[in-house]
Amino acid sequence: MIGVLDWGIGGVDALVRLSRAVPAQYVYRSDSGFEPYGKVPPDVLAKRLDEVGRELAGRYGIEALVLACNAASAVLPRLTLPFPVLGVIAPGVALVRRAVADGARNIGIIGGEGTIASAAHRAALADLEVAQAARVRIVARPAQALSAHVEAGRLDGPEVDAEVARVARALGEDGPIDALLLACTHYPALSPVFARHFPGVRLLDPVDLLIEDASTRLGGWADGRTESAWIVETSGDPEATQVHAWRAFGVSLGRVRKSGLDLADDPIPARERG
Ligand code: DGL
Fold it and tell me: Where are the beta strands (DSSP E) in the chain?
C-alpha cells in the first residue's frame, strides 16, 4: 500500500498518474481539515506530516508515502517516518534544470508561502545561477491564495484572475520570464488562467518528473499487479473533495471517506484494504 498526501485535492492528478505508472494499492489523504500547509510553520507542519504518515501506516500498513504537495515536500528532510517518503521538490528542481538545458534563462517559481520561504528550490539550483554566470535568473514569489480557490472549485473568475495578475506583475518586476515552475500541486488546474497571464511562458509541472522518480523507486513494488485501486479520505469535507477534484482535474475519485473514523464505524470492504 502506498500513501499519497496533500493538503487538499492538489495531489489527485499525481494519484491518477502514479496509479497508472506503478500498479499498487493506494490511499490518498487530503488534509483539508487542517490549515493550508503553505501557511503552517515548518516545525508544526513536519509534526503533522509525521502524525498523518504514522496514522496511515497504522491503519492501512502503507510502506511508502508520496508527498504530492510542495509545502509538505519542503519539510521532508525533517520527517522521521520509518519508510521511504518521496516529495515534489527534487522533481521540480530537475524539471528546471531540464528547462535550462533546453534554453530557458529566466525562471519563475510560484507556490505557497512556506514553499517559497523555505527557498528549497533556489538552494538546490544555486549552482545554476553561479555556474551560468548570471545568465540564469530565478525569481520566486508566493501565490498562497490560489490553492484555496482551486480547493473551493473556483478555477477562474474575478478573484482568481486578480490574484494571477498580481503574481504575474510580481514575477515580472525585473523582466520577463520564459518558464514558470508551478510549485503547488493545485496550480495545474489553473493552467488556462496562467496561459492568459503568461503568454508564451512554458509551464513546468513537477508531477511530470515525480512519476519518473516514483516509477524508479517504487516500480518494483507492483508485485505482479496490473491494476491499481485507491481509497480516498479527507480530514475536510468529503463531498466538496469529490466534486472539486472532478471540476479541477476531471478525476472521478469514487467514494471519499472522512478520515479519523474507526474502521468499525465505516468499514472498508476487504478488497479495498490491499
Ligand atoms: N498542494 C499544496 C502544495 O503543493 C498546497 C498547499 C498550500 O497551498 O497551502 O503546496
Answer: 2-6, 25-30, 64-67, 85-86, 106-111, 137-142, 179-183, 202-204, 229-234, 256-258
Q: pTM of the full predicted structure? A: 0.93
Which residue type sits at 50?
D
Q: Give the nearest ligand 1 atom to 183 CA.
A: 4
Please give the grid coordinates belonging to residue 34: 487542517
One domain, residues 94 and 200:
yes
Ligand 1 close to Cβ of residue 70 (< 6 A): yes
Ligand 1 center to residue 271 CA distance, Å?
A: 31
Please give the distance, rounded to the nearest whole angstrom, from the Cα atom of residue 7 to the centre of ligand 1.
6
pLDDT in 10s for each residue of the chain, 274 residues? 999 999 999 999 999 999 999 999 999 999 999 999 999 999 999 999 999 999 999 999 999 999 999 999 999 999 999 999 999 999 999 999 999 999 999 999 999 999 999 999 999 999 886 665 558 999 999 999 999 999 999 999 999 999 999 999 999 998 999 999 999 999 999 999 999 999 999 999 999 999 999 999 887 766 667 899 999 999 999 999 999 999 999 999 999 999 976 544 554 443 444 3
Domain check: are 201 and 93 in the same one? yes
69 CA closest ligand 1 atom index: 4
For residue 10 and ligand 1, the question of a CB distance below 6 A is answered with yes
**Which range of residues forms the domain containing residue 228?**
2-87+209-272
Q: Which of 165, 195, 170 is nearest to 109 (CA)?
A: 170
**How many Å apart are CA 51 and CA 180, to the nearest integer?**
33
Domain identity same for 107 and 132: yes
The alpha carbon of 181 and the centre of ligand 1 are apart by a number of angstroms equal to 14
Residue ending a domain, choose from 206, 230, 257: 206
Does ligand 1 have an atom closer than 6 angstroms to the CB of 7?
Answer: yes
Number of domains in the chain: 2
Alpha carbons 67 and 54: distance in angstroms, whole number: 14
